[in-house]
Structures are given as structure tokens and as C-alpha cells.
Amino acid sequence: MPHISKYGLEKHGVLNNANTLWNLGAEALYEATIRLGLGTVSQGGALSVNTGKYTGRSANDKFIVDSPASHDNVWWGPVNKPIAPERFDAMHAKMLAYYQNRDLYVQDLYAGADQGYRLSVRVITDSPWHSLFARNMFIEVPENERQGFVPDLTIMHAPMMQAAGEADGVNSEAFILMNFDRQMVLIGGTRYAGEIKKSVFGYLNYILPERGVLPMHCSANQGAERFDKHLLRPVRYRQDDPVG
After folding, report:
1. How far apart, in Å, are the Cα atoms of 165 and each of 80, 117, 178, 199?
2. Residue 230 pLDDT > 70, yes or no?
């Protein structure tokens, strides 16, 4: 049995779920996906899944909680759309209710290899293949570090849970709600796994410039000469790549 963080799911308000499956490996998540009928084995043995109508990121369904603490740090506009804290709290409550009596797959992971800048990320989902996606995308936490793991960012994910559109303060059944103050993201109504990845990158785009680090959506090599990080200036959070 993998070591489990002492920082339990109750810290996120999760209670009365059926089973909590911590840090399952690729084989177990692969098997669970097939057993639950959520994917098939393709020729050659690769796992094949169907994301439904959402085959890419749904930028129109992403919102950022507008609060006094973060308001001046976000470049508001057609991409970074605001949502009230009360709307986020209501959707969080709906997701907690949805989680009850369901098996939940939890991955504790690191985003970023450099210990000085990496982000501790917890992904909670009721879908084993999305848990596998997160495990493949980010860095597995060594067993000897798991008990003391405390997430800097928690992603609560429910791909089959649908929002009520305008009644929930969003645009459709899909929702991606980022709350910088609570260090939490809520994702639902879309099976496209890239929303998990982009939420982590978006959070890094918010916190790293304040630490004198310029995040880049690319790969980079470091040469003999190093840039002086103190020359960087804090910038407002801006994510103006609606399709990346």
C-alpha cells in the first residue's frame, strides 16, 4: 500500500465518499479504466478513451474568482473572466455532494523538477484515467515524502458532473473555476484531460512572476550565461492563449 499523506481529504471538505484510492500506479489505473468501461485497449496495447464533445480546452467555460486579494493581479478580459467567490463556494458544495458514495482517485504530485520552484499538486477525481493522465503529466512524489505532503494547489475534478449553466453563474455544463485565494481549481462537465494540465500551468503563471520567475509555455535550455532573476519585474497574470 502506497504511503498516504496525513493531510487527508477532509481538509478539502470531502466526506462520505466510498473508497479513497491513493497514488495508484499506471497499471492499476489502466485496469480500473477498462473494468469501469471508461476506455478500451487499442491495437498495440495503448489505452484509448473518448473525451466526448470536448476535444480541446473550453476557454469560454473558464473563470477566475475575483477577490480583493487577487483582483489587481489578474488581466481581466474575454479570456480571464471573473466569477464571484459565492458562486465558487456553491459549486464546491455541489461537487462535494457529487463525490459522496463515489470512489475517488487521488494523486499527490509535483509540478516542476526544481525544488526551489516546484508546486505540490493534489488531483482528486472519480475517473481513473484522468488520474493516470495527471500521474503521467507531473512528477510522482517519492514514498518517503508522501506522509508529509501538503498540496499548494488542489484540483477537484468530476468530468461527468454537469453545471446548470447560467443558474450556476457559468456558460454551459462545463466549468473550470480557479480560486487563487483558496489554492483550488474545480473542473467538471468536460472529459478533456488537458484542463488539469492547463490549470496547473495557469496557477504557476500567477505565482511565479511574484517570485521573480518568468514561466514559459515551452522547453528551454540553460547556457553558460544565466539571466539575473532580479531584473524581472512582477507582471499581472495574463493567459491570452485560448487554444494552447
Report:
1. 18, 37, 17, 21
2. no
How many other C-beta atoms lie within 10 A of the C-beta of residue 78? 9
Closest CA to 71 of 56, 84, 87: 84
Kindly report, residue by residue over 98-133, the tens digit of the pLDDT.
999 999 999 999 998 888 889 999 999 999 999 999
Q: Where are the alpha helices (DSSP H) in the chain?
A: 26-35, 85-99, 128-137, 143-146, 194-207
The reported pLDDT for the residue numbered 210 is 87
User: 31 CB contacts (<8 Å, ≥6 apart)?
Assistant: none
Domain 16-216 belongs in CATH node 3.40.50.150: no
Residue 68 and residue 73: Cα distance in Å, rounded?
Answer: 10
**By the 8 A CB rule, do 53 and 148 touch?**
no
pLDDT at 221: 58
| Residue 116 near residue 55 (C-beta atoms within 8 A) | no
Q: What is the DSSP letter of 194?
A: H
Mean pLDDT of the 158-174 span: 97
Cell of 158: 468530476
Q: Where are the domains of the chain?
A: 16-216
| Other CB atoms within 10 Å distance of the CB of residue 155 | 26
